[in-house]
Amino acid sequence: MKKLLAVVAGCAVLASGAAFADPIEELRAGVYAQDCCGFGSDKEQGVAFNGEAVFSSPRFLSVLGAPRPVIGATIATDSDATSQAYAGLDWTIDIASRWFVSGGVGAAIHNGETDRYDPAVDMARASNTVFYGCRVLFRLAGDVGYRLTDRLSASFHWNHISNAGLCSDNEGLDQMGLRLGLSL
């Protein structure tokens, strides 16, 4: 329960910054495989549920290609798995009449392990504990999607969080799954 409260508090902090952004353009929700398929550690099990709000791109971001600000949270279902709240920027490119790809960068705050790995103390839990090193991490994300209607889309999503080598340990976490988007 403490882990869940920490993630909710982190999400509230991130959301307060987005309150000054333009209106919400899209809401997204999905289900992910926890800690799989990428550069992470593959130590955690279970699934995670994701919710995300996508805002209109503010005018000053046009110099960066008009990315849209996003805030979101991913809640892991396994009690020992990592949940996260995040904020960032998302670029979407149409590649065919209804197909699109998107990529995003940002920061995430998580409820996982930040202590430095100590072989003398942590050997018993080394196979199922991700050692992140920092509480706040970099986040990369990507989607390949299809617009089912003018307002509803479905996408295959991947995201990765890690500290990019800035802290003592850097195992990272990858999640992959499906999500739906609803344009408002």
From TrEMBL:
User: What superkingdom does the record give?
Assistant: Bacteria
Keyword Metal-binding carried by entry: no
- Tell me one Pfam family matched here: PagL
**What is a single molecular function from GO for this protein?**
hydrolase activity
- The molecule here is called Acyloxyacyl hydrolase
Residues annotated as signal peptide: 1-21
Q: Which UniProt keywords apply?
A: Hydrolase, Signal
Q: Which InterPro entries match?
A: Lipid-A_deacylase-rel (IPR018550)
